[in-house]
Amino acid sequence: MNNTKHNLLITLYAILVKGKVHYATPRPITLLELLKNFHHIDIHYRWLFQCLTDLEEAGYITRQKRWDPKSLPTIHRLPALLAITIKGTKYLTSGMVEGSRKLYHQMLSWLNRKDHRFPKPQDIYGLQCITSRGGDLKKLGEILPPLTSLSPNRGG
């Protein structure tokens, strides 16, 4: 792990500790400013997103994408929910980051309670589950028959 990813993980950890929450929704510009002010790392958006992707693929953080339901019919993206995983807290503990051992034990107790970290799509939108294929296929079936009945007569 390079210096930028290491410091980005520490920055996310500091946001979580200061806010006393288990996930955060920092905007990318906020992360860039925090990295610049506290770690003297000046990077651009593209490298920030690549570092976040690398941390997620390595299993150190999780991201939950969010959308604004009020911005219909256009699509408006909200900042993602970011959380540090147990593997991420182990990494922070091995680096002797202050308070990371306490976070690690809190996460283990959270896992034993079987609580869910992120809200489900139906909690956010108040609709039926968006990912259910059955509902989508049924809606598609309701739309397609009227379209096929309107096909033009191809006979001479």
Description:
There is one protein chain. This protein is mainly alpha-helical and 156 residues long. It folds into 2 domains: 3-118, Arc Repressor Mutant, subunit A (Orthogonal Bundle), CATH 1.10.10.10; 120-151, no CATH class. Helices cover 56% and strands 10% of the residues. It has 7 helices and 2 strands. The chain has helices at 3-19, 28-39, 45-58, 86-94, 100-113, 121-125, 133-149; strands at 61-67, 77-84. It has a two-stranded antiparallel sheet. Helix 1 (3-19) crosses helix 3 and helix 4 (86-94) runs antiparallel to helix 5. Residues 121-131 have low confidence and may be disordered.
Largest sheet: number of strands, sense, barrel closure? 2 strands, antiparallel
Q: Pick out the low-confidence regions.
A: 121-131
The CATH class name of the largest domain reads Mainly Alpha
Beta content comes to 5-15%
Give the name of the CATH superfamily of the largest domain.
Winged helix-like DNA-binding domain superfamily/Winged helix DNA-binding domain
* Topology pattern, helix = H, strand = E: HHHEEHHHH
Q: Give the neighbour order of strands across the main sheet.
A: 1-2
How does the helix and strand content classify structurally?
mainly alpha
Return Rg in Å. Answer: 22 Å
The number of helical elements comes to 7
Q: Estimate the global geometry from the Cα principal axes.
A: globular
CATH fold-type name of the largest domain: Arc Repressor Mutant, subunit A
Q: How many β-strand runs? A: 2
**Amino- and carboxy-terminal Cα gap:** 70 Å
The overall pLDDT, averaged over residues, is 76
CATH architecture label of the largest domain: Orthogonal Bundle
Task: Please give the domain count.
Answer: 2
Helix coverage percent of residues? 55-70%
